[in-house]
Amino acid sequence: MPAEILNQKEISRVITRMAHEILERNKGSKDLCLVGIHRGGVYLAGRLAEKIETIEGERPPVGTLDITLYRDDISLRKDPPVIKETDIPFSLNNMKVVLVDDVLFTGRTIRAAMDAVMDFGRPARIQLAALIDRGHRELPIKADYVGKNISTARKENVKVYYTEEEQTDLVMLLKEGEQTEEDI
Amino acid sequence: MTKDLLGIKELDKDDIIRILDTASGFKGVLERDIKKVPTLRGKTMVNLFFEPSTRTRMSFELAGKRLSMDVTNVSISASSVTKGETLLDTIRTMEAYGADIVVIRHSSSGIPHLLADNVTASLINAGDGFNEHPTQALLDIFTIRQHKGRLEGLDVAIVGDIAHSRVARSNIYAMGKLGINVRLIGPPTLIPAGMDSLPKVKVFHRMEEGISGADVVMQLRVQRERQKGGFFPNIHEYAKLYILNGRRLSMAKDDAIVMHPGPINRGVEISSAVADGERSVILDQVNNGVAVRMAVVYLLSGEKTSRMMEERRQRTEDRRQKTDHKLMPAQERRQGTKDRRQKNEY
């Protein structure tokens, strides 16, 4: 049986806490913006922005980022990955950019995301928010805001579902070779 | 997709749509302040042009550079072909330099196809004789989709020298695969026989008739060098019959767009007012060309990687078969060793 890590209610609480942490650390939402990394990070960035809006009364600008073209394994992959939309409709110069991703694993995605963000401007600061930190970092990267730390084996798989795509928000831990119902 | 992009003929509908969708992603890159991504860092592109070309060559060069490739251009006058080297040797030399992508333009039809099977680099056809110019057709289709939001069921008029146009040929193939209705307009001498027997293709000799109700009007360049062949009496008469001016454009749909692969001959196939008018998307075509070529290079590079991985897997497999005894159950292996010891093989 795949183990449930966070259910919808817990995810909502975690996001509320992270929103507070972001505001506390940055002393409000001035010059703050969120950039969600495809796919999951895009949904999470939207929700964090909503929460920040209910707390501060002002919604920080939200962008989406596709890191495909910045990957370090592009020449090692079998199929060239599909390029998704990168949409950052505001200047990143002198902004406090919070990168948002769902699962922090090797850190390679974040390395690529930081390179991509730098191509869009010169932010004052880049911070990282991740819903799940599952360890096994291959690069010296650390999240500033973590929803939940879990210890995993390398071959396990953390799967996140979103109401935008599925019936509910859910984080599951799949053992090696384990599949969810819909995969079968 | 295959290793190379030789022509639209070799692609299917899904390939074309995949290239267009990928190009949309690259269009975003070109709109940024820093128009460069590190995707293909360390890969090499060689532009091998045996025919003069400014825009296509520059477009490929920029596409490569914006993907962080190393790009070199070889033009005919500076190459060792003039010293008697065969084409195949030239291209093998390029490969020895480490070229991953070779873009080739040649005045003879079929040259890229001939070379493709003999090299491991990915070949992109940038125009071969009267045959095809696939990336031009792809960027044309991309531009149509950008402005019309759809492809299937559109009416596209292609006007001019169809017979000698590789742009027209590639577009006819592509549009046929995508369900676009094509109207070919030109004097009988410049439209090859049998064209109207192709599905979704109609032939017109009178411009007014062919253009009416069209969603897209694509003018081809009058290739002045053809005039010597006697295909039309003189350039003025051609212009009179087939120029796209405001009056003729008004017969097409109200939102019809005007396209031209360039370079344009003002006052011959297109009037200045139309070329510079608000319905002209000629400069969009140029701009989209870079994004489409980036997409082609990106997708072919992925294809090359998967081919290399397959070869590597095959090699490992072969090696494994040679050293098969390791996979034998221990007991059999020991027995084998015992036998050999008895035979004094050790």
Written description of the protein model:
The complex is a heterodimer of chains A (184) and B (346). Chain A has one domain (3-70, 83-174): Rossmann fold (3-Layer(aba) Sandwich), CATH 3.40.50.2020. Chain A contains 3 helices and 8 strands. Chain A has helices at 8-25, 40-56, 108-120; strands spanning 3-6, 32-37, 62-65, 96-104, 125-133, 145-149, 157-161, 170-174. In chain A, the strands form 2 sheets. In chain A, strands 3-2-4-5-6 form a 5-stranded parallel beta sheet, with helices on both faces. In chain A, strands 1-8-7 form a 3-stranded antiparallel beta sheet. In chain A, strand 7 (157-161) and strand 8 form a beta hairpin. Chain B is built from 12 helices and 9 strands. Chain B is elongated, with a radius of gyration of 25 Å. By secondary structure, chain B is of the alpha/beta class. Chain B has 2 domains: 8-133 and 288-303, 3-Layer(aba) Sandwich (Rossmann fold), CATH 3.40.50; 135-282, Aspartate/ornithine carbamoyltransferase (Rossmann fold), CATH 3.40.50. The relative contact order of chain B is 0.13. The chains are: A alpha/beta (184), B alpha/beta (346). At the A-B interface, helix 3 of A face helix 1 and helix 11 of B.
What secondary-structure arrangement, pairings included, does this model have?
The complex is a heterodimer of chains A (184) and B (346).
Chain A: E1 3-6, H1 8-25, E2 32-37, H2 40-56, E3 62-65, E4 96-104, H3 108-120, E5 125-133, E6 145-149, E7 157-161, E8 170-174
Parallel strand pairs in A: 2-3, 2-4, 4-5, 5-6
Antiparallel strand pairs in A: 1-8, 7-8
Helix pairs in contact in A: 1-2
Chain B: H1 13-30, E1 44-49, H2 55-66, E2 70-75, H3 87-96, E3 101-106, H4 111-116, E4 122-128, H5 134-148, E5 155-159, H6 166-178, E6 181-185, E7 201-204, H7 207-211, E8 216-219, H8 235-242, H9 246-249, E9 257-259, H10 272-275, H11 282-322, H12 330-342
Parallel strand pairs in B: 1-2, 1-3, 3-4, 5-6, 5-8, 6-7, 8-9
